[in-house]
Amino acid sequence: MAEYKLGEVEMRFANLIWENEPLSSGNLVKLCEKELDWKKSTTYTILRRVCDRGLFQNESGIVTSLVSREEFDAMQSRQFVEESFGGSLPKFLAAFTSRSKLSEKEIKELQEIIDQSRNK
């Protein structure tokens, strides 16, 4: 699996695409000018960067995602657990809960996720 790491600026840019796709590259330039105060050249530089990473494509002037926001978040989460906890989800959860107690609602939601995972 490829590593998809984005800096803060790239994440803001990626979110604009995910929230507005599909969109023309011209409209993306206008959106970035309005939302990020970027020039056209900056938009195209960052677009090329995220396309080279395999997250988005600019096909015939239409920008779309190759990886959905949900897929991206899942990959980022998996990568974090791999790098920080040797891939051990139980170690991650133990660290996560060591400073605060889970609410009954959180426990129930986690149990539902575990149950769904068993049925896959």
Report on this model:
- The chain is mainly alpha-helical and 120 residues long.
- The protein has 2 domains: 8-69, Winged helix-like DNA-binding domain superfamily/Winged helix DNA-binding domain (Arc Repressor Mutant, subunit A, Orthogonal Bundle), CATH 1.10.10; 88-120, no CATH class.
- It has 6 helices and 3 strands; from the N terminus they run αβααββααα.
- It has a 3-stranded antiparallel beta sheet.
- α1 packs across α2.
- 10% of the residues are buried.
- The mean pLDDT is 90.
Question: Summarize this, please?
Answer:
With about 120 residues, the protein is mainly α. The chain has 2 domains: about 10-70, Arc Repressor Mutant, subunit A, CATH 1.10.10.10; about 90-120, no CATH class. It has helices at about 10-20, 25-35, 40-50, 70-85, 90-95, 105-120; strands at about 25, 55-60, 60-65.
